[in-house]
Amino acid sequence: MSEQKKQILLVGAGLAGSLLAVYLAKRGCTVDVFERRADMRLEEMNAGRSINLALSVRGTHALAEVGLLDDIMQLAIPMRGRMIHGTDGSHSFQPYGKDDSEVIYSVSRGELNRRLMTLAESHDGVRLHFRQRCDGMDFTQRSILFTDEATGRSYERRGVTVIATDGAGSAVRQAMERAGHAHFTQDMLAHGYKELTIPPDDGGHFRLEKNALHIWPRHSFMLIALPNPDGSFTCTLFLQHDGDPGFSSLDTPDRVRAFVALEFPDALPLMPTLEEDFFTNPTGLLGTVRGYPWHVDGAAALLGDAAHAIVPFFGQGMNCAFEDCTVLDETLDEFGDDWNHALHAWQERRKANADAIADLALENFIEMRDSVADPHFLLMKKVGLELEKRFPEYFIPKYSMVTFHRTPYSVAKQRGRIQQDILEKLTRGATDLADIDFTRAGTLITDRLRPYAEESGSAR
Ligand SMILES: Cc1cc2nc3c(=O)[nH]c(=O)nc-3n(C[C@H](O)[C@H](O)[C@H](O)COP(=O)(O)OP(=O)(O)OC[C@H]3O[C@@H](n4cnc5c(N)ncnc54)[C@H](O)[C@@H]3O)c2cc1C
């Protein structure tokens, strides 16, 4: 590795930036991380973003690689499936995987970020610089511009390789676009989100089933809830900005209460701070960022949400960003730390997969808010898990490929389409598992799918 290339500057000490700092430190790089916000380990901060996240195999794999998984698992709450809440207060459970080994984990975003930062700083050569805002980059001069938020002083850094992990609104990405190095689109959803809380009961216990991701699907909108270690749930309401119902029409405490009473009657008594949460917490925006290339001549690259922000409905944004780090590390191994060629190969490997998970995440919004309440969809889910048991070498449900396997997202998307078609054929006119012709299933599967092991490969 040449001495110059060992100097890496990361913009953003969020989830991806903090993890990447660890990966790079382990390679012997000197890493300076410039973060706009203050050190969250010193200040209590809640920027209104989701305070817990669903962690799945791509994320756990990366955390295991950097040696943090056991630590994070102490905080993680396994969620074995979806608990669907009806408007009549009824609820039903749908397992995510084939057995209890296939679960996703609810993890505190802040705690995960804090522990990644602390791990990064424990390595010689990693320095975190807080309240340093990146304002842009001059790619010809290879100079990156910052403002010190504490003093207002502007300054530049030169001659380092920059990796921008500064999230969906990346300043470096915008600079790349302005300089004509890349073209990106940002497609915003008509829906936004708002975080609400279900606190623990008086004894500190969970007020809903702990080991589930709760969903109140209501076709054009939905409420979800993920458990926290203190017995509370963080709820997220996904709703259109405009229209009725919409965030803009829920403009008084009475309207908010009436809406929740009508649509989520069993949740209402569990939310004593509903109105306060609703009007204190910001309404978040949701969108998909796509574009290319992600790097400029070995001088700068985009990683994580900065390169490919997606909507949160598959719970994969962070998992995908973590996988970016894993694959970059593998690619640097392969290219003997030739950064320019490695970054080029890495972006080619990741682009199709980032596009695929962006599409899958948008499709999953419809599944979560709508299909999970449809008996035919539920039958297809059951049949999918049964086919996995009977034909494990060929059929792995799409959700499982994305969440429990490190199958490339593009393969999961492509095999998922074929499998969906097979499921539709098999379940036509059926109402129960007993109605399914599994001999026909075997023929359809082996005719149309290659053995899973041939395509599941590494997560590139
Ligand atoms: C409601 C919601 C729910 C989600 N749920 C899940 C989930 O369950 N599972 C999952 O895997 N993903 C989930 N995600 C996605 C996940 O939050 C993101 O994919 C993940 O945070 C991306 O990490 P990142 O490090 O790339 O970006 P970020 O986490 O956004 O970090 C970017 C960092 O850069 C800093 N920064 C920004 N601009 C500058 C600048 N100009 N200069 C210096 N620093 C800067 C920021 O302060 C921040 O620290 C969810 C997202 C949302 C909105």
Distinctive features:
460 residues, alpha/beta, FAD/NAD(P)-binding domain, D-Amino Acid Oxidase, Chain A, domain 2, 7-stranded mixed β-sheet, disordered N terminus, binds flavin-adenine dinucleotide
How much of the sequence is in beta strands?
Answer: 15-25%
The global form is globular
Unreliable segments of 5+ consecutive residues: 1-5, 46-50
The CATH architecture classification of the largest domain is 3-Layer(bba) Sandwich
**Largest pleated sheet:** 7 strands, mixed
The level-1 CATH class of the largest domain:
Alpha Beta
Ions, cofactors and other ligands present here are: flavin-adenine dinucleotide
* CATH homologous superfamily title of the largest domain: FAD/NAD(P)-binding domain
Report the average pLDDT across residues. Answer: 94
**Structural class given helices, strands, pairing?**
alpha/beta
**Count of DSSP H/I helices:** 15
Binned, the helix content reads 25-40%
Number of domains: 3
How many E-type strands? 19
Query: Rg, please?
Result: 23 Å
Enter the CATH topology name of the largest domain. FAD/NAD(P)-binding domain
Can you lay out the helices and strands and say which pair or pack?
Elements: E1 7-11, H1 15-26, E2 30-34, E3 52-55, H2 57-65, H3 69-73, E4 77-79, E5 81-85, E6 91-95, E7 104-108, H4 109-121, E8 126-129, E9 132-138, E10 143-148, E11 154-158, E12 161-164, H5 171-178, E13 183-198, E14 213-217, E15 222-227, E16 233-240, H6 253-263, H7 274-280, E17 284-292, E18 295-296, E19 300-302, H8 305-308, H9 317-334, H10 339-369, H11 375-390, H12 398-403, H13 409-427, H14 438-448, H15 452-456
Parallel strand pairs: 1-2, 1-12, 2-8, 5-14, 12-19
Antiparallel strand pairs: 3-7, 4-7, 5-6, 9-10, 10-11, 13-16, 13-17, 14-15, 15-16, 18-19
Helix pairs in contact: 1-4, 1-9, 2-9, 6-7, 9-10, 10-13, 11-13, 13-14
Bound molecules: flavin-adenine dinucleotide (FAD).
Flavin-adenine dinucleotide binds next to helix 1, strand 3, strand 9, helix 8 and helix 9.
